[in-house]
Amino acid sequence: MRRNTSLVLSGLFSSEDERVKTGVPLLMNIPILGQLFSSTRFQRNESELIVIVTPVIVDPLRPRSEDVMRLRPDTTKPALDALQRRLPPNQRRP
After folding, report:
1. HSE-up of residue 69 (Cα within 13 Å, Cβ side)
2. Cα 83 to Cα 94: distance, rounded to the nearest angstrom
3. How many helices (H) and strands (E) does the chain have?
4. Single pTM value for the model
């Protein structure tokens, strides 16, 4: 890929075919004559998924400022101190 170009990935996500029968209640259920009081409709539902990717090449030795994740220092007391207090005195580490 060239610089500042995007890659498009797409495809059919889901496809659903449905047959819907509608008509006059009770009359549409009569054998043979019910055809006169009802209608059948076919419906197709399709969903597509599209993903657009614009890659950026980053030099790990000289990253841009927006590519560096800022982490706050951990200010909580480590759990090791709490565990040390629960150990018997002869098993504690200095």
Report:
1. 2
2. 13
3. 1, 2
4. 0.39
CA atoms within 13 A on the CB side of 12: 5
Q: What Cα–Cα distance (Å) separates residue 34 from each residue in 7, 31, 41, 74, 88?
A: 54, 6, 15, 75, 86
Which value, in Å, is the radius of gyration of the alpha carbons in the chain? 33
Residue 41 CA to residue 20 CA, distance in Å, equals 5
Q: Which residues of the chain have pLDDT under 70?
A: 74-78, 93-94
Query: What span, in angstroms and rounded, lies between the C-alpha atoms of 11 and 17?
Result: 18
Q: How many residues does the chain have?
A: 94
pLDDT tens digits for range 16-31: 888 888 888 888 888 8
Q: Which helix (H) or strand (E) holds 86?
A: helix 79-86
